[in-house]
Amino acid sequence: MIVVMSPNSTKDQLDHVVKMVEEMGLSTHLIHGTNRTVVAAVGDKRMLDKGAVENAPGVEKIVPILSPYKVASREVKQENTAIALQPNGFKIGEKKIGVIAGPCSVEDRSRLFQIADAVKEAGGMGLRGGAFKPRTSPYSFQGLAEQGLEYLAEARERTGLAIVTEVLTVTHVDLVARYADVLQIGARNMQNYMLLKAVGEQSKPILLKRGMSATMEEFLLAAEYIIDAGNPNIILCERGIRTFEDYSRNTLALSVVPAIKRVSHLPIIVDPTHGTGHAYLVESMSLAAVAAGADGLMIEVHPEPEHALSDAAQQIDIAQFHQLMQRAARVAQAVGREI
Ligand code: PEP
Ligand code: MN
């Protein structure tokens, strides 16, 4: 249920409504729009005495929410949400499209700095790189762990780029949050509900990747877990789903971008690298993502992709990244955005 406060309601009236709803055993989320505030009441709706709340001073109306995700839905908040990233203050979800790029894994310090400098020069706002890697095989390179996080933090000092890196397990949340500006939840963990709750209990923004077999509704319910635990700063990321198709590593479901924008206020970015699994497909799918309305791109870049310790087939080199950025800027302009 959403309690819509009237535009001229007072702070005391709002506090009173929140108290009433909470006394009924429901949790509340406040959403401050441009004209009015709404109180999303989440929980078992049989507990809500609708009439009592409707009569409270300052309440305009009560609206039932139809979608299973509530605080992530546009029914609760009509305006787009933009997420501000440290250290540069860049806001994902506004006119300017945010590009997060970097290696699949952090491999060594000097190579990471080389990539970070190139990402910065080409106009990216974030540096990605896995320190803890979710690898399909236990024998594959697993990442540099805390050493990798330290290199990422040094690269932020050097470039001012926001650091985006994956957290694999609940026990690493504090560690990763000490170094990163954005905590990535990978596709394999999108339905790890304990991890979703744990990252919801800290305040750094979350980049939530779509699970490879998740429906749009399951994707948004995963976001709902994080918001419900207390962290509303979520950037969704489409990274391709598993289908019968095998010419690409995954099938990049770009139509989820406008579909999510229709039902949710959260920003969504696209990862055409994991979405296709082949370097030659990354530029065209990046341009298509921008045209489809994505708020950002996440791209794997490596100075020598053939020598990369993970995901060698899909990483583009620095020259290809520069070209992609220039072309994406032209598409962005054509659809009323900027890069
Ligand atoms: C990644 O971005 O490093 C990654 C492992 O991606 P995904 O979780 O989408 O497979
Ligand atoms: Mn990768």
Explain this structure:
- By secondary structure, the chain is α/β, with parallel strands linked by helices.
- It contains eleven helices and 14 strands.
- The strands form three sheets. An eight-stranded parallel beta barrel has the order 7-8-9-10-11-12-13-14, surrounded by seven helices. The protein has a four-stranded antiparallel β-sheet with strand order 2-3-1-4. A two-stranded antiparallel ribbon has the order 5-6.
- Helix 7 links the parallel strand 11 (about 205-210) and strand 12 (about 235-240).
- Helix 3 (about 110-120) packs parallel to helix 4 (about 145-160).
- The longest helix is centred in the last third of the chain and has 17 residues, at about 320-335.
- The protein is elongated, with a radius of gyration of 21 Å.
- The model has no long low-confidence stretch (mean pLDDT about 95).
- It binds phosphoenolpyruvate and manganese (II) ion.
- Manganese (II) ion binds near residues 104 and 311.
Major beta sheet summary? 8 strands, parallel, barrel
> What is the strand tally?
14
Any low-confidence stretches, pLDDT <50, length ≥5? Answer: none
Helix content: 25-40%
- The largest sheet has its strands arranged as 7-8-9-10-11-12-13-14
Ligands and ions found: phosphoenolpyruvate, manganese (II) ion
For the termini, the CA-CA separation is: 38 Å
Written as H for each helix and E for each strand, in order along the chain, the element string is EHEEHEEEEHEHEHEHEHEHEHHEH
Q: Brief overview, please?
A:
The chain has 339 residues and is α/β, with parallel strands linked by helices.
